[in-house]
Amino acid sequence: xxxxxxxxxxxxxxxxxxSSLAPDDGQIFETSSRVQKKGKTVKLYxxxxxxxxxxxxxxxxxxxxxxxxxxxxxxxxxxxxxxFTTVTRKGYVPxxxxxxxxxxxxxxxxxxxxxxxxxxxxxEGPLGRTRVLEALTYVSTEIHRSFKPMWHQGSDAEKTKARxxxxxxxxxxxxxxxxxxLFGDKPSVADFYLFVMLLWAARFQVPVPAPxxxxxxxxxxRPAVRAAMVREGLV
Length: 235
Known about the structure:
- This protein has helices at 53-62, 107-117, 128-146, 148-151, 156-176, 189-203, 210-220, 223-231, and strands at 42-46, 66-72, 77-78, 95-97, 103-105.
- A hairpin with a 5-residue loop joins β4 and β5 (103-105).
- The two termini are 27 Å apart.
- By secondary structure, the chain is α+β, with helices and mostly antiparallel strands.
């Protein structure tokens, strides 16, 4: 089964015009560590337009010092020819290798780590982190999962049903949006994960509520977001 971000036919045409915006092997936890040379920064393994784009954007937005390397999710090879399963046995992105040598996987975990290191991408208050995790979990377990028929050659009927489901799911965020971003006047890591889902919606002709169309354009206009998308060959 192809991973999200690469369709089952191996189609890698992920370029998105800005004007249009405005496999698990049973291992649950990533416990391996990797030897790194002194002075190296964190390293993000990503695949263009996969959910790892959210992490890519978050690191750019934070102004973090980081290395990055692409992963072919079909061959499990990195841009430098490395066997990606030596980075993570899970074989999918994101994977973030910390300067300690520890490896983080799973989008919620990686984005939570970024927000913990760069608090400007989190939310203040006693329930701030909890609310961000709540939003990230909803995006991951509900919206992200609903795109499966699009990425994995579902039938026309399955795709039609998925589009309706995703539009309804997105409506929860649209109905609660009262500010420029999900939690106020600045974006959080949750906004970036939702943004990737909105890009997928544009790719697969999923109707998006008007407030989220505006949110997508607002996020796309941010310099750090454009930098990450340019790096991934999306614009």
